[in-house]
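User: Hey, quick favor. My workstation is busy. Could you predict this chain's structure for me?
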Amino acid sequence: MFEKEIRRKSEELLETKTVDMVIGYTSGSLPFQARPVLISSPEDTEQLVWNHFSSPNLARYLLPYRDSSKKIALLAKGCDARAVMVLIQEKQFPRERVHIIGLPCPGMISKTKLEKELGEIKEEDFSFEKDTFLWQGKKWEIFPFLEDTCSRCRYPNPPLYDELIGEKRELWGSSSTDYLEKINGQSEEERWQFWEEELSRCIRCYACRNACPLCYCKECFAESDLPRWVSGVPTLSDNLFFHLGRSMHLAGRCVECGACERACPEEIKIGLLPLKVEMIIKDNFSFEAGLSLEEDAPLLTYRETDPGEFIK
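Assistant: No problem, here it is.
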């Protein structure tokens, strides 16, 4: 999927010294995996890849350079570009120092779903196309194998970019599903039981927080000593407090990339919490994060016309 064009453009930007570094994807150490890579030499741009497994949100990797003078080119799918917009709005990274190479997203595939459906799989047995793939001579639709958060994505095309590589994507249309549909249909008791089961498995490794491009506090409340908000022991009550607290910190800021959920070693459906909060924000304030540099997040502003029916 237009890897040659990505490499050519990245090489050009580095050779002309338009940027000092390119943040993109390269092949991971495991199959069906792409990992972030930081490239500062034009010769190294051959390492760059772009495929259905380029899932990490690369906006996260801007943060170590926020206090430097480096100008950085960032490969950005829809959710990455939205996260960059939030970082710019929150003055965490200056707009003039990031060159956004927009990439229309084909949807990120879950290796776990492939293994559950197909059994033992090898990378060389697959041939991926736009919305389908070939495996053992049979054509399969990609949509059923998408990461859960990708299945509800409404912004596959980056809303902010300096240049776009590839053709813009259409939404999945009638095949699109809302990841929140099941939990939205549950009673309060059913939801409590669901989260009790999910969060009892949490080992509080903080992989979800560390993968999130918008969790950038120098000291997380979960690790604060004065005051101490949660203990170091992953009890259900402390786990619940941490995940609810993180979701509240992301309210009106989450770009629904699903990085938190993909990072979880226990495969907890943790993405549902911030997604549900964002749905409430959208319903009450008609706002979605990372779509405009001019529109402030509703929880950072006050208007007399703000709805208040949800406050009880």
